[in-house]
Inverse folding.
């Protein structure tokens, strides 16, 4: 839980994204568990977590042929742009039209 406080996600939930990709591909949890070498119960736990250990995420991405790391990177780049945009807005003179 401490990790989630340090890295706010605003609804970005990697476990749910993995589950959605698995469903989109029409694959079963049993299939994915076999591919990554873990139990179905562990995958159900993974789906509940906002963040996933990198080695497990790599194996899941490899099995699903999906780059979850790029997705995370794109998310953080967008958040960074949003933050920078807000900082620019806050520093912009309020009376610039006068």
């Amino acid at each position: 839980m401490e990790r989630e406080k340090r890295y706010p996600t605003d609804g970005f939930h990697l476990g749910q994204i993995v589950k959605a990709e698995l469903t989109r591909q029409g694959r079963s949890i049993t299939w994915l568990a076999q591919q990554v070498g873990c139990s179905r119960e562990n995958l159900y736990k993974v789906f509940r977590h906002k963040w996933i250990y990198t080695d497990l995420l790599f194996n899941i991405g490899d099995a699903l042929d999906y780059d979850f790391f790029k997705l995370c990177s794109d998310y953080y780049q967008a958040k960074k742009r949003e933050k920078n945009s807000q900082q620019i807005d806050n520093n912009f003179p309020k009376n610039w039209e006068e």
